[in-house]
Amino acid sequence: MSAISCRRVEKIFGSGRTPVVALKSVSLEVAAGEFVTVVGASGCGKSTLLRMIAGLEAYTGGEIEAGGAPVAGPGADRAMVFQNYSLYPWLTVMRNIKFARQLEVHIRDRTSADVDAASGRADALLQLMGLEQVADSYPSQLSGGMQQRVAIARALMTRPRILLMDEPFGALDAQTREVMHDLILHVCALEGCTVVFVTHDVDEAIYLGRRVVVMAPRPGRIDAIYEVPLPPKRTYAMRHSSEFLALRAQILDRIRGTSQVRTDLRLLEKLSRRAAS
Amino acid sequence: MSDISTIRVERRRPKEELWKIRGWVSKRSYWTLAALGLAAPLTCWTLLTAFGSVNRVFLPGPYDVVHRVVTWFRDDELLGDVGISCFRVTVGWALAAFVALPLGLFIGTFRAVQAALEPLMDFVRYLPAVAFIPLVMLWVGIDEGAKIAIIFIGTFFQMVLMVAEDVRRVPMAQLEVAQTLGATRTEVINEVIIPSAKPALLDTLRITMGWAWTYLVVAELVAANSGLGYAIIKAQRFLQTDKIFAGIILIGAIGLAIDQGFRLVHRLAFGYLYARS
What we know:
Order of helices and strands of chain A: EEEHEEEHHHEHEHEEHH
Strand order of the largest sheet of chain A: 6-7-8-3-9-10
Structural class of chain A: alpha/beta
Shape of chain B: flat
Number of domains of chain B: 2
Largest interface: A-B, 35 and 24 residues
Strand content of chain A: 15-25%
Oligomer: heterodimer
CATH superfamily of the largest domain in chain B: MetI-like
CATH class of the largest domain in chain A: Alpha Beta
CATH architecture of the largest domain in chain A: 3-Layer(aba) Sandwich
Radius of gyration of chain B: 25 Å
CATH class of the largest domain in chain B: Mainly Alpha
Radius of gyration of chain A: 20 Å
Number of helices of chain B: 11
Strand content of chain B: under 5%
Number of helices of chain A: 8
Largest sheet of chain B: none
Largest sheet of chain A: 6 strands, mixed
Number of domains of chain A: 2
């Protein structure tokens, strides 16, 4: 059974004379435990799709199911990691990670064993993410990479079956991002959760995903889905393998062919022709 | 060939950038300039009254003003005037905050409440509070209630809009993270919106406290027989310019003290904003 199943999902923004079709008939099945990445030019609706799976945005047509139940709103089974500004600056790292524990859904039948388990879990996540040294620091005292590690630990705290990530490393520098890639692969394999990871970075999408979903804009739709021909355990060297580079070229061509980059390219051609004459 | 350890690195003092845009200025220079900025007008004032040919009725010297404060304190119930003025300001401002905080929270949180109330508030905010004085006297009378009502009218409508804006400025990602962790609507408000907006709310309270003092003087100039504002208007009748000066300076000093108090509370309550890495 699929962990996430989108069938002919449609999203129309606004109403009246000029409604905007953000997504048109998007169908996608994600198997339990799978790591799927979504790439596409800006405006292709990849974030919108993710937000609809999270239940943060309503869909205007089709159906989305998560864990066999239709998505009607946000739920504790689907945690989400945002690009930035999502940590609570008034809480320490440890209390950010434990934030979910104080919510009603997670404190039913609370026994001392539960509390112990939760503390153990928080400590384990802290260690897994390499945050032991900063457990009592505030988010503003951490680097961008560390802040995102806290955000991921917080999302994993309650063992969600599905982890949704919306360009979580988009604001990080290239070196930090590469480290985070290996970290997130390791953690998600360990936790066994299903992941949908949205990004605009094709390298990131290939390196992380078992499958790469390529979306196209106007109207937002799935353009192609690629199986990544790399072994499940990814290593840095694979980034330079011929399979990686071939798939990268293929996906970049697809994205180029469908985005408004074309108009920019035409402008560039015109300018260079003018310069030549 | 010189050994690397023998090379002497000359430590230079960081250079001050007095005229660079947003340049760096040492702490010592900063406080020197601040002291000069305060001392300069005081010196001018002293010299002007000591050697100038200005009539004391129009411009009393610093000594006259200090002397007036002392006699006011000794013979004329200075503390009583200060006390009653502080009382009016505090009660009027606290009443405004008591209603404005929850109302602003709702306006900033729910679009429906915003639609219902914000345009109205925006309208009333532009009605001059001073012009309400005759109405207030008609409806509330001329006792303490009238002064408190004028302070309330002067601060409340601005305060509601500022509180609503503070609440709206809580980053969406902070709210959505809580939702995807399973927080209910009440939990999002209590655990995220309120703690996140708190520092901004305290700043709003501090700023509106300043406005409350402005309206206090207005209220006491018109309808009172006690208080600092009343003392100023009475002094005008008897051409006691030194007392006018004393009253104005006292109000300024009290305002400054309250403002610094708020800033201190801000530092103590929201240490995470001042945390250094």
